[in-house]
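Hi again,

Forgot to attach this to my earlier email, sorry! This is the prediction with DGJ bound. I've pasted everything inline since the attachment limit keeps bouncing my files.
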Amino acid sequence: MILHDEQAKLFTLHTRNTTYQMKVGQYGVLLHTYYGPRLRGGDLAYLIQYADRGFSPAPPEAGDGRTFSLDTVPQEYSASGVGDFRQPSIRAELADGSQVVDLRYAGCELRHGKYALDGMPAFYAGEGAADTLVIELEDPVSQLRVELLYGVLEEYDLITRAVRVVNGGSCSVRLLQVSSLCLDFQRADLDLIMFDGRHTMERCPSRAPLRPGVQGAGSVRGMSSHQHNPFVVLCEPGAGEDNGGCWGAMLLYSGGFQAEVERDQFDNSRLVMGIQPRQFCWTLEPGEAFTAPEAAMVYAHNGLTAMSRQLHRAIRERLIRPPQGGMRHPVLINSWEAAYYDFDTEKLVELARASAELGVDLFVLDDGWFGRRDSDRRGLGDWWVNEEKLPGGLEALAERIGELGMELGIWIEPEMVSEDSQLYRDHPDWVLAAPGRAPTRGRSQLVLDFSRKEVRDHIYESLRPVLSCPGLTYVKWDMNRSLTDVWSAALPPQRQGEVLHRYVLGVYELLERLRRDYSHILIEGCAGGGGRFDGGMLYYTPQIWCSDNTDAMDRLRIQYGTSFGYPACAVGAHVSAVPNEQTGRSVPLETRGVAAMSGTFGYEMDLGRCTEEEKEIVRRQIRAFRERRELLQTGDYYRLTSPFEAGPYTAWQQVSADRRQALVSVVTGAVRANAPFALLRLKGLDPDLDYRVNGGEELYPGDALMAAGYPLPSLPGDYQAFQLHLEAERG
Ligand code: DGJ
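Structure tokens for the complex follow:
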């Protein structure tokens, strides 16, 4: 619900459990008054205090007045060069060379339904399910207009934001920064949680109290990156999984981003999130507009679990789009770790046959099927089937796979090109490369200039025969290097700062085209695993390969960190062979299955090599996943313990919406002799119901399971796993 009190110039956004408020204050400055637990209403501007502070200047209209300073008041979207020395939300260079942008209230508009963003990802909701508020700010001198867009998804406790900048003046303007979100707090007693890592070890949470100054994370790699994630949490210092105020902010963007929090001199804090300003400069001619990507905010008064669940539900139901969003994720076998580049039709069919016999639905042919791609040094860009490996092409393979009762999936990496490829020989100027410099290689490949329509069109046309193959229902879209040498042959020198964002828009445009023209195909996102695991990609690719690290014990950490912002149904997770390719560790097959089941379950190994006993385990795993798919992928998610702490086990739990069913997964670490007994306290059950565990005779009261726990068996050996399936007694 959006309330606009015209007289008081007050905007109050209510969701079911939260309230967000802004007010047009003195001199038309848009102040931020509140974001937190739902309140009855009222004007919360009383919270803002004014004083004459040294070195905090006042706007010219204040005359002799010295108590109003942009340097000290909480604002909705911070300007630049006019007395606020904290993090700006927008920076621009005007035609006269000045970098001054002063923003004052100019008007507002309320609309039913949720705004959409042309060519960019955004949460969606029909009329009745969301409302939109547009607040217009204007720089009176340059006539640069800033439209702040707010989407209120009341039932989801979700508020989205986006920003549109219009050049209403008569001279061109160079935008140097346009952030999507600015959130001011009149407090500094907050912890910042970020999700950092590296290739094969993504999204490990780090938590620290705010210290004076600027802190944060960002990516300058042209992708959201393995190293940092465009999702951050600010929370009260004592906040835990079940207690404390938590504010989550997510940028729906797959390119470089910046997320920074500044704790200022007076113990206020400001979070600013948006496109990475480094290497960004966008020229706006008179009348032109620039739109910054969407950011989403959630608040939970009762801890991190509740905050995560709000995001999970909103992403599942209002970001991931049908039909793919509603599609049941197939149990798949991926050829990568089983075959790498070394295969032919017969080998693939054998892999598929062994998997089909055990109940797998979909065979995904990974890298190596096209051009002269027999290593990662060549072939990218030549999207025609290598008939030496696959005589009769994909159609023949799809037919053989179809005879086994399976569907076919295929790997592509459309954004990249190898120098040893026909595409590069024909179009060497299609790559990102600065004039006079040989471009940097990453995984021996170069980056195609996806900011150019003709490049995307060519890729689309060359992919069409592949995507049109009958029986093909799945595509894995990979991306295997960071962007460097950012320069486009299609743009003039003064517009080179637009390349990175135009690249991301190009990726979105091609993804949208594939979605539209091949709506029966489920697209999995991937960037060397989880290098582009973000809300932007989830709008186009309902699931994302979470990490190239398939070691189950490492995966517990990666999936734990990922779960703070993203739902299990988005997390690509497979069982792979042991010793693990990435770590050399051997983890029992049961355990690898339990870890992969908390994602979009599948296998990435030669199942034909399994012993009969192992095959039986695989059959059981697939049956269990099918039976519990709904619960695993859409159940309320509880992190029961953290794999980053030194406890004897890691546990998590999914609970059905009606709380009559739950699945508890437990994985032990290195075994300890004569270990203490363990009682695991469960969460989210109905205290008034009794539960049967794994179909056993005994009934356990829900209240006791939560207050006192369930006795865990002690298992011999390292890295053991088990699951407890709880069903409420019918009553
Ligand atoms: C990186 C991906 O994350 C892997 O799963 C695999 O598809 C390889 N690329 C193929 O080159």
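The first strand starts at residue 2 and ends at 5. The mean pLDDT is 97.

That should be everything now.

G.
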